[in-house]
Amino acid sequence: MESVRVLSTLALKGAVTRLAAAYQAASGVRIDADFAPTLALLKRLRGGEGADLVILTREGLDEVIGEGRVAAESATDLARSYVGLAVKAGAAHPDIATEAGLCATLLGARAVAYSRLGASGILFAGLIERLGIAADINARAVIIPQGFTAEKLVTGEADLAVQQISELKQVDGIEVIGPIPLDLQTPAVFSAGRMTASQRADAADRLLRYLSSVEVAPVLRETGLEP
Predict the structure, then answer these.
(1) Which H helix or E strand runs over 77?
(2) Dihedral sign, CA of 206, 209, 214, 220?
(3) Euclidean distance between CA atoms 52 and 64, whole angstroms
(4) DSSP assigned state of 126
(5) How far is CA 188 from CA 12, 117, 178, 179, 198, in A?
(6) What is the arithmetic mean of pLDDT over 184-210?
(7) What pLDDT, in 10s, does the model give residues 3-16?
């Protein structure tokens, strides 16, 4: 069976995993996907790793287009995502609707889990710096190199997890409180493009059209993304 090799940012793992079976049934093409944060994927691509299609943050995709690794005309914005907070299932949902509420919630947490490499972790690190609470939060934060921060809620290592809402939703046993106030964040835009060295350009382009089609929009929404 023909397959298309996809390197995708973690934020779309839930959506791509759910869509893969339907796409294979309809097209006879298997999606062979590997998921990691954009910064980790950029490093792998620059190290020579091959793929047919990549899904990265828009900034990351623009970088690899500039390096000639991705065909500029293939670039397609797929989804927008906001950074949110989660707690362990059954725990109280603290107030994060305002800047003051968010600060109080973060300062009151025993430990906050966030990611060092993901777009969400970079945004959060800058945010707590701007809010003047970075030293307090980082003194007891659980900062993971990559992966799903909400797993630290399940293990009890943290009582708040910060990540793209689409990434939080991929962990069982947790509840998303909601987004960080929208005036404190810029949504991440996730975009896809075909690798210039792909030997399966037609199959990659067909998959690109599918991922940006109206039929996949409901799955994007269910997994915490905005088409």
Answers:
(1) strand 76-81
(2) positive
(3) 13
(4) H
(5) 12, 14, 16, 13, 26
(6) 96
(7) 999 999 999 999 99
